[in-house]
């Protein structure tokens, strides 16, 4: 199963240290990594079908601040599909109005309905989801 990290904050900040910790789990999720940074009028999508811990690009990327208010990061443990860029998450989709959002493919497994619930956010966070 893949791992997903998401953040929605009251204001933009450096998420680099959080991402470095998250991508450190890629030894157990070695089939690709991705990062979507969502801005008011743009989306930045960076991803590779290689383990995050072996990505020279990601190592260089995380040496500088990664400023974002909203982001989604993903590390893949492939159960289906080939190991290529087209199968590396997240994906960027647009709704009927043209607004962009990040998406990932796959199933959510666990305790069934209600197994993922909103938790009390910390100050400055819009929402946190827990299992």
Task: Describe the overall structure.
The two termini are about 15 Å apart. The radius of gyration is 15 Å and the shape is globular. It is mainly beta and about 130 residues long. Helix content is about 10%, strand content about 35%. The strands form three sheets. It has a four-stranded antiparallel β-sheet, with helices on one face. Strands 5-6 form a two-stranded antiparallel ribbon.
Instruction: Write out the strand line-up for the largest beta sheet, numbering strands in chain order.
Output: 1-4-2-3
Low-confidence stretches: 107-131
- Ends apart, CA distance between termini: 14 Å
Order of helices and strands: EHEEHEEEEE
Shape: globular
β-strand percent reads 35-45%
Q: Helical proportion?
A: 10-25%
Broad structural category: mainly beta
Radius of gyration, whole Å = 15 Å
Enumerate how many helices there are, as a single number.
2
> What is the tally of beta strands?
8
Largest sheet: 4 strands, antiparallel
Overall average residue pLDDT: 77
